[in-house]
Design goal:
Immunoglobulin-like, six-stranded antiparallel β-sheet, 6 strands, alpha+beta, globular
């Protein structure tokens, strides 16, 4: 393989890697992982709409999800993800 071919292959690899990272950054995907009925890891959310020890409602833009239960609290919060802990009685998807 010549130097030129190796350089072109490297450039293609860099472009594909950049494209994948940009898709991850701007992708509108959301993910909710519920562990038993005591912990939920939420990714891809837009923000917290309602917060109390019995209801936590999260916005995903076009829809929201409400966790209803006892002793609910946010353990970790970032701009697009959060962790909810407590005792879940109900999970509601609201359009």
């Amino acid at each position: 393989m010549s130097k030129k071919q190796a350089k072109e292959k490297l450039n293609l690899k860099d472009r594909l890697s950049f494209k994948d990272s940009m898709q991850e950054l701007f992708c509108e995907k959301s993910n909710i992982e519920i562990c038993d009925n005591t912990r939920a890891v939420v990714e891809g959310c837009k923000g917290v709409v309602e917060y109390s020890d019995t209801v936590i409602r999260i916005s995903f833009g076009a829809y929201s999800v409400a966790f209803v239960g006892r002793g609910l609290n946010l353990k970790c919060l970032s701009s697009t993800s959060l962790i909810i802990e407590g005792f879940f009685l109900n999970v509601e998807f609201c359009v």
